[in-house]
Amino acid sequence: MGQMIIHVVQKGDSWYAIGQAYGVNYLRLAKENGIPLDAAPVVGQTVVVDDAQTPKRGMLEVNGYALPGMTDDVLEKTLPSLTWLSVYGYPATMSGTLEHADDAQMLAACGRYNVAPVMVVTNLRGEAGFNAALTRAIVNNLSLQDTLIQNILRTMDAKGFVGAEIDFQAVEPQDRAAYRAFSRIYGHAAMKHIIELNPPARR
């Protein structure tokens, strides 16, 4: 069992960094202090850290990418060294749906080794490669973006992913500003979704 301590927020602290320092889930940390995740910690603010472990310094977090067909042997040798595993990939379609990867083996292995799985959403279309036209269609259509984002969030919940990475490559120069705007829209939607699943405690 850990101990209850009072952490005084320092310059550069975030909920995630504080949680990592004390071995506590950052979502729970913000919730138990009654503060929304989108409200950044303020320097000098006191944060109650319940069940804290010995403060950690210099923690290294490591991510790896897993491709379909990766063998059990490779997963068993690699996962003990990882914090995150990005499961590649979930191709988006012109209708905003996702083609699902053969992920059961990788998700089960993540569970055995307490590794956080992240889904990778891509514009890769098989042997045809990365599809710039698909990216253009999505980033310039708000309705299509909303459909895709909702499908991403539903898949995250259903399969137990902790997050999703949008990995659209071969983006044409004329689509880059729209792609950045889409990335911001997705980021806000994902954070709102996390907060709704883990609402702050009411005092």
Description:
It is a single chain. The protein has 203 residues and is an alpha/beta fold. It has 2 domains: 3-52, Membrane-bound Lytic Murein Transglycosylase D, Chain A; 63-197, Glycosidases (TIM Barrel, Alpha-Beta Barrel). The protein is built from 7 helices and 6 strands. The protein has helices at residues 15-22, 26-32, 72-78, 104-113, 132-139, 142-159, 176-197; strands at 3-8, 46-52, 63-66, 84-91, 116-122, 163-167. Strand 3, helix 3 and strand 4 (84-91) form a beta-alpha-beta unit. The model has no long low-confidence stretch (mean pLDDT 84).
In a few lines, what is going on in this structure?
The protein has 203 residues and is of the alpha/beta class. It has helices at residues 15-22, 26-32, 72-78, 104-113, 132-139, 142-159, 176-197, and strands at residues 3-8, 46-52, 63-66, 84-91, 116-122, 163-167.
- Give me the secondary-structure category: alpha/beta
Q: Per the principal axes of the C-alpha atoms, what is the gross shape? A: globular
Largest sheet, described in full?
4 strands, parallel
Major sheet: arrangement of strands: 3-4-5-6
In the CATH scheme, what's the topology name of the largest domain? TIM Barrel
Tell me the number of strands: 6
Q: How much of the residues is beta strand, in percent?
A: 15-25%
Topology pattern, helix = H, strand = E: EHHEEHEHEHHEH
Using the CA coordinates, give the radius of gyration.
Answer: 19 Å
